[in-house]
Design a protein that fits this description.
The protein is of the alpha/beta class. It is 43% helix and 13% strand. The strands form 2 sheets. Strands 1, 4, 5, 6, 7 and 8 form a 6-stranded mixed beta sheet that branches. The protein is globular.
Length: 358
Amino acid sequence: MRGADHQQSGMFSYISAEKRVPEDHPLRAIRAMVDVALRNMGPQFDAMYAKLGRPSIPPEKLLRALLLQVLYTVRSERMLMEQLNYNLLFRWFVGMNIDDPVWDVTVFTKNRERLLAAEIAKTLFAEVLAQARGRDLLSTEHFTVDGTLIEAWASHKSFKRKDGSDQQPPDDPGNPTVDFHGERRSNATHQSTSDPEAQLARKGPGKEAKLSYAGHVLMENRNGIAVNACVTLAEGRAEPEAAVAMVEEIPGPHRITLGGDKGYDSKEFVQELRDHQVTPHIACKQTSIIDERTTRHPGYLISQQKRKRIEEIFGWLKTVAGLRKTRHRGVIRVGWMFTFALAAYNLVRMRNLAAAAA
């Protein structure tokens, strides 16, 4: 018998969000790891807020909501609040009851400076790494480094001369016509009015130049987990300088190996790695000073195979996490979001490794 298409919705539900989420849902394992990390961050959260006054939206809920935005490619915080209003899975992950009202989207705006000042993204990233270390998922000897360009939230129209000599009355105040073809434009003479810290950069010869930031990742080679990251201005020596800075933060006096592409193969960089007790497993140019004393070992070939996995991290960040074009301005804010998204990637990676081992 055909069922009737009743349109009237029920007023009550006796099934909680906890029971509606399947036991094998991927978010369950991620939620468990996130709860452990946030619990350990409790003292840092206490230091962020005053002892008296009206209770705030719990920072744990804010961070779980931002994780959902990264994991599910939600394009804006306003859209995230819309999803949180009717998506039971999102409500369960954040820790809200079915009838709890969602907060206003400006809560993220008001709390962003607080989260930036307390470096919450770095702390969450470190807590996730501590769990990976406790599960023996991290290598302490073999690493890979690479960098990528993150397109800034600024257009070519905003890239104007610093001395203001190209200022003209716009033909359309809302969307002026700008003709910069044939004009020599560089970071030395021009600057974006939308994001002054964004630099004009290109991925390689023949590629188009875009206003960008440089994102850098240090990956351990055992399971492809990011162990360090930073965002810098997209300048000429940004990659080798960031690589050395991240290598210096690796704990322990033991010798390590560092893989990388040909872009890192310069005499100065290789020598600096050796001064830091790092064996350079860099892809060699014809003029490379890396010789058979390094390349003849099987470990060099293994590093060359493993280093390609770092591209999976960048691919995930730009497609799933939405960092192909950042929604934030300034190197500090972009760096905060970059580190936070990497923490989310590590959570997904650890969950997948646990599922494969089960």
